[in-house]
Amino acid sequence: MSTLAAKVPTMEAAQIHPDAPITSHAAAPATASEKPARLVCSEVWGGNRTIHTAVNLPGLHGVLFSQPAQGGRGGDVHYLSVCGSGILSRMCLADVVGHGEAVARFSSEMHAQLRRLMNWPDERSVFKALNRRLVDIGLDAMTTAAAVSYYPPRRKLSVSYAGHPPAWFYRKSENRWVQWSIQSREGAAGLVDGPLAIDPDAAYSRNSLKAAEGDRLVLITDGVLEAPGPNGQQFGTNNLEAALNRAGGGSIQQLAGGVLDSLRDYVGPAGLVHDDVTFLAVEFIPGPTLGRHVWLALRNRIFPPRNELPDA
Fold first, then answer.
1. What is the pLDDT of residue 279?
2. pLDDT number for residue 10
3. How far apart are CA 277 and CA 75, in angstroms?
4. Taking Cα atoms as reference points, which of 132, 114, 141 lies closest to residue 1?
5. End-to-end Cα separation, the chain, in angstroms
6. Is the distance from CB of 178 to CB of 169 less than 8 angstroms?
7. Most CB within 10 Å of its CB: which of 92, 251, 259, 299?
8. For residues 19 and 156, what is the distance between their CA atoms, to the nearest angstrom?
9. Using CA atoms, how far apart are residues 76 and 74, in angstroms rounded to an integer?
10. Is the pLDDT of residue 76 over 70?
């Protein structure tokens, strides 16, 4: 998949924490071993260059890895944000089928729409608005996407898919990983849970669960599953599940590193050049309580963050 056009900026980190002063700033690209980027009322988005960074949002922390390929077949786009109240965290991965200008246009539109809809709690509405916008502007670039929201005070985790590979969820109490598939809604007139930019009347489903401390979530693009071995066989879900299980009781950083090592070992000397490869691995940790939610929301409304991140 091709990289995004150079005119599309990448916002790599905004280092804010609920207990820190309410400011926001752009930072230099980080590595996974550096101090995590803590996001409140800000965002991380991009897809036009390699990023391997630790990221903290309210109630979760993890690692984001994204490496563009050089083949010119499309592009992965990632977007992480925290809503205006400083509580609702949103994570989105997308895979654009296209190249060059099509990928750049999609990245700009996705960023603009997700920023505008940052405070919308329902991913279905976000996807519906984004899909309608992409169709209206005539973007000829079929796109799959996964959108996840997390509300720490109630530990509510929700996901919606637009033709995208399902996430993987780890329930600590059961010590096992499962693919988080969802039942598509019935009765819709148009396409249901299909890729973006195809059907203006497409509808999207949603599934929610309650995350506990120590549970984990992994989002991927198909570049992970389609990584080819020397014999041409793809990495696939079985190898991914094995890599996740090998992490055992290690840290989320060790889990992300293990997945990346497994991918690189599998493809061998050729390297990850077949496609863009993106994954996000997060672990759920103690977050703001309902009492703190009210205070944080009020504080961030009265004293909004100073956003110095560039506009797309």
1. 96
2. 31
3. 9
4. 141
5. 21
6. yes
7. 92
8. 22
9. 7
10. yes
b/e map 113-147, b = 16+ CB within 10 Å: bbeebbebeebbebbbebbbbbbeeebebbbbbbb
What are the tokens at 159? Answer: 């996901």
Per DSSP (E only), the strands in the chain are: 23-24, 37-38, 43-46, 51-57, 60-67, 74-82, 89-97, 143-151, 156-162, 167-171, 176-180, 207-210, 216-220, 277-284, 306-307
Say what angle helices 236-246 and 252-267 make with each other, to 10 degrees: 140
23-307 CATH, one of 3.40.50.1370, 3.60.40.10, 3.40.50.880, 3.40.50.720: 3.60.40.10
**Amino acid (one-letter) located at 114:** L
- Domains of the chain, residue spans: 23-307
Average pLDDT, the chain: 77
Structure tokens that stand for 206 in this block: 């949603």
Which residue is listed with tokens 């509300």? 151
150 in Cβ contact with 216 (< 8 Å): no
> Could you identify the residue written with the tokens 């560039």?
310
Q: pLDDT (tens digit, 9 = 90+) per residue, 96-143? A: 876 566 677 777 777 787 777 777 778 898 899 989 988 888 877 788
Angle at 42 between CA 165 and CA 109, to 5 degrees: 55
Give the pLDDT mean for 259-287: 93
297 CB-near residues (< 8 Å, 6+ apart): 85, 86, 87
pLDDT digits (tens, 9 = 90+) for 188-244: 667 899 999 899 999 999 999 999 999 999 999 999 999 999 888 999 999 999 999
